[in-house]
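2 proteins. here.
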Amino acid sequence: MKWFLKWLFRLLLLAVVLVVIFFLSLDTIIRVVMENRIRAQTGMDAEIGKFTLGLAEPTITIKDFKLFNPPSFGGTPFLDIKEIHVEYDRAALAKSELHVTLLRFNLAELDIVKNSAGETNIFSIAALPSVKKTGGKGKTFTAQTGLEFTGIDVLNVSVGKAQFIDLKDQHNNREQVIGIENCVTPNVKSQSDLAPLVAIIVLRSDGFFNSLVDEKKPGFDILKQIGL
């Protein structure tokens, strides 16, 4: 009997250790899964510097998220996001509602790339099936996630700079510092609530995006919807 109790105690200790290791590794596991999922759905490589899932508090934080263009655009950088921090309402989530109390989004850099075939990455990415679905022409957000989006109480956005890179002619390359820090938009429940934020980005971009707005280019409707 003593040996049985001894081994049972050891097994319980082992179980506790495994649980502790799991929770300590949980953020790393989720980070790797997210990187693989992004690549599987978009064909684009992703790097997440740090992922933190709050267990005691309803928070999710992603730091140093980088998304790279597919090989057709040279595998060059596309997005460099310093931070995505989300605080959500657990009670609402229990009712299958997504109520975000705070969303902090810090975009350090956006790189728009034109490849040797004359294609621009933002239009090609917009044409991906997964992007079309989230754009509203396929399944709705509720149909995809099982959650009803009820709004963002506080949206805090920072935007660093944008670059245009022409892989065929580097003389066309240009950079624009937008320099928006902690621009707060309250009570975001629909696309129209983002209009003031978009207006600020357009003003700060000093015409940077104007050459991209061409009704003959695929994806124009998407840019038009967000005010560019």
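next one coming up
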Amino acid sequence: MPRAREPGMLDDKDRQILNFLIEYYNEHGRSPTVREIQDALGISSTSVVKYHLKHLKDAGRIDYPRGLARGIEVQTVPRIKAVPWVGYIVAGQPIPVPGVTENEVEEWVSVPLDWLPRPKRRVFALEVRGDSMVDASIHHGDIVILEPVTPEDVRNGDMVAAWIRSAGETTLKCYYRGGDQVRLQPANAAYQPIVVPAEDVEIQGRVVAVLRQVRGCGSTAGGGM
């Protein structure tokens, strides 16, 4: 059994259960049972689930009346989806999406359901490194939300995360296919498009939303108004 913690302080398992409660409620319109929480998150026993539910209740995050199979209520349930954050778009490394399970995810991003064109579809989050898409309002440090797609689903003009096999690079670009070639188009005049054979490209996701952290204006030459 986990050791006691200070009231109001949530650990990783607390947050994982809370995210699951929110996502399950948003999808099904009701709360999950303790057994469903255990099965979905791979928790060792229902007693461990109940321990974390009690801690969430003590922290004021849920109402957890005993004796009701689906009586768990998240306080002020937001219409959000908990999205797994799986890494960066970095040249030289593939995006580690295939095979990732919820139990392996260490960080989650909360995304409003209204931002997702297909809220029930699986999506994942990546942090952008670089400025090749600034003219499409995608900046260094932004979080892009992507949905996995098949080659048949990709359309010209889609913004995608593409793995270029021969170069061993992952890149975020706009996708255009003509015949047996693919052009990966940046949105920055300082960068040249990447043109490669179609079989050399693996589309790992299509961008459906962007999260941005507001940055300060920094210092200015004039000093003041």
